[in-house]
Amino acid sequence: MQYVPVLSSTNKSLMPCHAARARELVRKGRAVRCFDRGLFYIRLLDRETGNTQPIAVGIDPGSKKESITVKSKAHTLLNIQADAVTWVKEAEETSTNMRRSRRGRHTPYRQCRVNRNQGQFRLPPSTRARWAWKLRLIHWLNRYYPIRAFVVEDIQAITKSGKRGWNKSFSPLEVGKQWFYEQLAKVAHVELLKGYETAEERKRLGLKKSKQKMSDLFEAHCVDSWVLANAWTGGHQRPDNTRILYIVPLRFHRRQLHMLWPAKGGIRRRYGGTMSLGLKRGSWVKHSEHGICYVGGTTGKSVSLHDMQTGVRIAKVQPKSLQFLCRSSWRLRKGEAASSAI
Fold first, then answer.
1. For residue 226, what is the enclosing H or E element?
2. Residue 190 in contact with residue 149, Cβ under 8 Å?
3. Do residues 287 and 194 share a domain?
4. What's the whole-model pTM score?
């Protein structure tokens, strides 16, 4: 990363500095090195405040992949390509089937209680999960960059007429994005651009977008988030930084009463949970042999270690052999293809 986020001694976000300048401040004892889930930053020891310049965040939502760009007028500070959360709808269907099967078996259950969500704004679980994932990334970035504005591509839902069709007031996509915009507005100013406006701005700058939607190329998704941020900040005709941080959200299996299907003898073993022998699942740890991994499930007195790149389990180890680094709900991976020249 060419430019490093900077926090003051009171944890206030200041303007990022060049990596060489960050190394000099650390060497002179004026700052300390810090890491937060893949992001390297420094914290100053001798400054509480400082002048900041306008920084915008371009957000390009997507069904499978989405991109975020943090940019000032002078520099492109960070590009992120994140996988979307796509498994919640399927998980809710499984949960519903398990609940219905328990009713048929007359399994003991708690007494019905008052609906605590009555009268509150409600989103379908799958829709909320998708937009809340973007919001978590935004709050993470807001800790380290003095963000002034969010520029979002305003995606449009397919509306259908008819008795069973979708409309703008009923579509989960339309309702979800409005909730997302309201939450963003609590952080900074929000501007919306239509898809065709993004395309026009991209063509004006002479940039091309790849049709390979699952690609790791800069031109696949980040080019649009960069165009959105640059439309607000200005300062560039072509991207000055095409490095990308690839983020994959982790799927946690919440605690269930039992498995959906019984094992031998009709016994249904318990399943799920977010704690593994005192370690939060998804936590980043360091192992002497396997390096930096993240924590998965448990087997007896051992915890599973998973590869950061692929998510595949690579070993089962004792918790005492691990050095805890941080809690996290995502993992990082390397891009499969280097970005081509724009």
1. helix 222-233
2. yes
3. no
4. 0.87
